[in-house]
């Protein structure tokens, strides 16, 4: 049912998430890759079927194109006839629906922006429908992809912002977790424990913001007692300009994404 061209990082995350969410059985996922051994590795690990690109397209009604942005238009041009009646899901950053539909006006395109935590069904998957997508296509797409985390339809003009805020930020958060664990080790904790505690603190804090829908500043105030230890740490973060650094890191990522989009 789901064909995947490209057996790289994001494909693996999506396959793992779909199997975890039990929306598809591994027998219903077929994957191909330029270098076939990568598809075979996914086959061994997840029980999905490895095949070539043509077989992936012919055997499936919905095709995930998970190749690098520079390869995407080539793939669409090469297989445009075979892809004409399929639902095509692109994950490529910087390639617009218009760019893809310009290859062939009949193509049914859904442009998405997933992040790697889709692997544990805690990701974000933002999407935009192309002009030829009909209700039945939307239903198939939602059935397969909606359980990977936050599933949200957006305006295409916002996809580069979503990409830097959700696609790039996991790397930033991993760096913060690593730094937190360094602090734990400095305080005498074992590395493994320090990493687990830090990861859980980040997960729990994110969950509090997401589930309570309270403003992060209100939640912050609830942890901060007068003349206590938390305010000492917060003051240190402010004096080191952490807030400004976070804003500019995300904005730099956004600017780079915009540059890719214009190429
Ligand atoms: N990684 C992320 O966090 C993330 C998040 C959101 C979106 N994306 C998007 O996802 C796409 C893939 O990224 P990635 O990180 O997964 O890259 P990746 O690990 O390099 O995977 C891309 C795969 O596509 C294969 N490929 C290239 N041309 C092909 C073709 N003509 N036919 C079959 N397979 C082909 C490559 O095979 P070879 O290695 O054999 O060349 C490679 O295994 C990109 O467009 C990126 O913008 C990634």
What would you say this structure looks like, in words?
The chain has 263 residues and is an alpha/beta fold. It has 2 domains: 2-154, Rossmann fold (3-Layer(aba) Sandwich), CATH 3.40.50; 162-262, ProC C-terminal domain-like (ProC C-terminal domain-like fold), CATH 1.10.3730. Helices cover 57% and strands 14% of the residues. It has 12 helices and 8 strands. An 8-stranded mixed β-sheet has the order 3-2-1-4-5-6-7-8, sandwiched between helices. Helix 1 (9-21) links the parallel strand 1 and strand 2 (29-32). It is elongated and about 70 Å long. NADP nicotinamide-adenine-dinucleotide phosphate is lined by residues 5-11, 32-35, 38, 53, 66-69, 71, 75, 91-93, 113-116, 167. Catalyzes the reduction of 1-pyrroline-5-carboxylate (PCA) to L-proline. It is an enzyme of class 1 (oxidoreductase). InterPro entries: 6-PGluconate_DH-like_C_sf, NAD(P)-bd_dom_sf, P5C_Rdtase_cat_N, P5CR-like_CS, P5CR_dimer, Pyrroline-COOH_reductase. One of its GO terms (cellular component) is cytoplasm. It comes from Mucispirillum schaedleri ASF457.
In short:
GO terms for molecular function: pyrroline-5-carboxylate reductase activity. The chain has 263 residues and is an alpha/beta fold.
Entry keywords:
263 residues; alpha/beta; Rossmann fold; ProC C-terminal domain-like fold; eight-stranded mixed beta sheet; binds NADP nicotinamide-adenine-dinucleotide phosphate; NAD(P)-bd_dom_sf; Pyrroline-5-carboxylate reductase
């Amino acid at each position: 049912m789901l064909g995947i061209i490209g057996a790289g990082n994001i494909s693996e995350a999506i396959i793992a998430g779909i199997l975890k969410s039990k929306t598809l059985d591994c027998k219903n996922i077929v994957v191909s890759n330029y270098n076939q051994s990568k598809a075979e590795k996914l086959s061994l690990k997840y029980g999905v079927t490895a095949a070539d690109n043509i077989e992936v397209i012919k055997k499936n009604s919905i095709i995930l194109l998970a190749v690098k942005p520079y390869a995407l238009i080539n793939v669409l041009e090469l297989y445009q006839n075979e892809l004409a009646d399929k639902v095509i899901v692109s994950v490529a950053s910087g390639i617009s629906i218009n760019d893809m539909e310009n290859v062939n006006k009949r193509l049914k395109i859904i442009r998405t922006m997933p992040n790697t935590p889709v692997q544990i069904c805690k990701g974000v998957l933002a999407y935009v429908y192309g002009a030829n997508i009909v209700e039945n296509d939307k239903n198939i797409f939602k059935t397969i992809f909606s359980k990977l985390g936050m599933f949200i339809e957006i305006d295409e003009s916002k996809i580069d912002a979503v990409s830097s805020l959700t696609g790039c930020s996991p790397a930033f958060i991993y760096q913060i977790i690593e730094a937190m664990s360094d602090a734990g080790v400095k305080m005498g904790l074992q590395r493994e424990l320090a990493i687990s505690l830090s990861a859980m603190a980040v997960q729990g804090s994110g969950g509090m913001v997401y589930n309570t829908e309270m403003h992060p500043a209100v939640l912050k105030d609830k942890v901060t007692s007068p003349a206590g230890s938390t305010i000492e740490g917060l003051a240190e973060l402010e004096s080191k300009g952490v807030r400004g650094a976070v804003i500019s890191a995300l904005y730099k990522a956004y600017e780079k994404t915009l540059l890719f989009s214009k190429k």
